[in-house]
Structures are given as structure tokens and as C-alpha cells.
Amino acid sequence: MRRVITYGTFDTLHHGHIRLLRRARSLGDYLIVALSTDDFNARKGKTAVLSFEDRKEDLEALRMVDLVIPERTWDQKVSDIDLYQVDVFTMGDDWIGKFDFLGDQCEVTYFPRTPLISSTQIRKAMSSATE
Ligand code: C2G
């Protein structure tokens, strides 16, 4: 069983997230998503439209996601990889190089980010639609 892990906020789940998750799942047989908690988002300086529970519900509805765990800190990745016996760590390439240090424990790979779509744009469209 080849286990893959990825991390993120995944707010207002969209095409860019889904492509990343599909590609991540294609690297193995089991995909774990470490989902940023609301507190961790605050520390990342990110405001999500959806709560952790709602974002978790969206991810768990996806066939390619096998397990969703909370991401509470920047430095839990090392212990997560050991704890969940992860073979591959992957992220979008807006993070390229940032997590190469995990290469001592598992494969590290980055996928091209999907252009022109983001939770920020969706949030802006939602707020202007309600004005
Ligand atoms: N992503 C993508 N294409 C987009 C938007 C996002 O491929 N148009 C990818 C990002 O590269 C990331 C994942 O989808 O790998 C989740 O994106 P975010 O929810 O924005 O995650 P982020 O805030 O970057 O959190 O410890 C790592 C952090 O928690 C990453």
C-alpha cells in the first residue's frame, strides 16, 4: 500500500484543489489530506469562508481522498510521515522547494498549480454577488 499525503486549507473546494488531489492520489493507493484547522489558518494569515468541519466534509465526499486529518502546526509533517507510514509527500508548486527536507523520510513531489482559480477569487465573487 503506497500512501500519499498532502496539506492545505482547501477552502471553497474548487477545480484547482480537485486536480491536485486527483494527481496526488495517482501517486499511490491511499491519500491522506492534512487539513488546516481554523486556528492554524489564523496563524497562516488565511481567512477561510468555510469552517474546518465543512471543509473536511467536502474533502471526505471525494472518492480520491481516503483520510482527512487536522493540520494544526507547520512542523507536524515529520511526525505525520512516520505515524501514517507515508511514502510520498506532495503539494502544488507554489510550495516548490519548501518541503524538500522531508526527502529524508519519503518521496517529495510538487504538481503545477492550476492557473486562474483560487479560493480568494471565489470569495471575492461571492461577496460582490451579495452586495
Ligand atoms: N492548489 C492548486 N491550484 C490552485 C489552488 C490550489 O494546485 N488553483 C493547490 C495548492 O498548491 C496546495 C493545495 O491546492 O497544494 C491546497 O491549496 P490551499 O488550500 O491554498 O493550501 P495552502 O494554504 O497553500 O496550505 O502546510 C502547508 C499549508 O497548509 C498549505
List the helices and strands and how they pair.
Layout (H helix, E strand, L loop, with lengths): L2 E6 L6 H11 L4 E7 L1 H7 L7 H9 L6 E5 L5 H7 L4 E5 L14 E5 L7 H12 L1
The protein binds [cytidine-5'-phosphate] glycerylphosphoric acid ester (C2G).
Query: Which overall shape is indicated by the principal axes computed on the Cα atoms?
Result: globular
Listed once per kind, the bound small molecules are: [cytidine-5'-phosphate] glycerylphosphoric acid ester
- Rounded mean pLDDT is 96
Summarize the main sheet. Answer: 5 strands, parallel
How many angstroms does the end-to-end distance come to?
49 Å
| Spans of at least 5 consecutive residues with low confidence | none
Q: What is the element string, with H for helices and E for strands?
A: EHEHHEHEEH
Query: Residue share in helices?
Result: 25-40%
Radius of gyration: 15 Å
Q: Quickly give the structural class.
A: alpha/beta
Arrangement of strands in the largest sheet: 3-2-1-4-5
Number of helices, where a helix is a run of at least 4 consecutive DSSP H or I residues: 5
Counted beta strands: 5
The fraction of residues in strands falls at 15-25%
